[in-house]
Amino acid sequence: MIYRTQIIRGLRLLKRTRNPDGGIAATKPGVVSGCWTTAEALEALLTAPYHDIDLRPFALGLIKYLQSTQFTGAGKAGGTMIIVLRMDSKEEVRALGQTLKGNPSLAMPARETDYGTIEFAVQDPDNYLVLIAG
User: Fold this and answer.
1) Burial of 21 (0-12, 13-18, 19+ CB in 10 A)
2) Which end of the chain, N or C, is surrounded by fewer C-beta atoms within 10 Å?
3) Long-range contacts, stretch 27-34, CB < 8 angstroms, 24+ apart
4) What is the pLDDT of residues 105-130, one digit of tens each?
5) Domain 75-134 adopts which CATH fold?
């Protein structure tokens, strides 16, 4: 219970700083939403032991953002789970993304984000999206 007030304040801050597109800003308030920051905010929301309001609509909004704006094949996903694999270097991610060019499992081609990572996504055999970033 020691951190109850701080946790609740943090969740309220996340809710207030959500962008109009439903995501969380990549680097600072007012900039483009990022998949990584939105997924991290969702994780914080879902694992927080204290809530003073019903945050389910907020969580569902974050999930909807992740499904609809980051991946071209998101509507076909097997569920709402997005798996993020973090690699050590941009070069590794870029090289792996290049090897998958033209592969039907590639859901989002490799791209550089506004916050400095390279990322791409594949759809696994069960139709879950796996985001590879570095």
Assistant:
1) middle
2) N
3) 27/114, 27/115, 31/114, 32/114, 33/65, 33/69, 34/113, 34/114, 34/115
4) 888 888 887 777 788 888 777 777 77
5) 2,3-Dihydroxybiphenyl 1,2-Dioxygenase; domain 1 (3.10.180)
